[in-house]
């Protein structure tokens, strides 16, 4: 059963008048009542509880906020059935939940990638360190080989000299078996 728009306006005017009276604005209530001619309309005051206007405005604000949060600027929630609104809310919650899960998965993947990168960098550092250690060992081995070669060469030289008839260590200026060594 559709309401007459005049009746709705009269009820709303009465709610405003009653709010003004309850809030202590008696002069404003008198002026509003006189201008809106509220005294000429039959309103059952006993059926309207105190604070009704505030409750209606609060509900309207809640619907407006809900409508904005759902992102349905074109749909009017006031005309929808409660089941439709609940379904819209459920769908919106599921969408938000999926987005959060996706975001969390992305964070986990990023964290794993960082950990993998850190592990690879640590492996690279260890490899570089072990390569450097191997190079140092090779250098030491070469030095030892060079020293061994030098000792072997010295021993061979001494052995060859002794075969030629030169014995012992020779100093500067010593002559034996027609071999002369000079000091430098």
Chain-wise SSE layout:
Layout (H helix, E strand, L loop, with lengths): L4 H18 L3 H11 L15 H19 L11 H82 L11 E2 L2 E2 L4
Antiparallel strand pairs: 1-2
Helix pairs in contact: 1-2
Subcellular location: Nucleus
GO molecular function: transcription corepressor activity
Protein name: WD40 repeat-containing protein HOS15 isoform X1
Keywords:
184 residues, mainly alpha, Mitochondrial Import Receptor Subunit Tom20, Chain A, two-stranded antiparallel sheet, 4 helices, rod-shaped, WD40 repeat-containing protein HOS15 isoform X1
Explain what this protein looks like in three dimensions.
This protein has four helices and two strands. The chain has helices spanning 5-22, 26-36, 52-70, 82-163; strands at residues 175-176, 179-180. It has a two-stranded antiparallel sheet. It is found in: Nucleus. InterPro entries: Ebi-like, LisH.
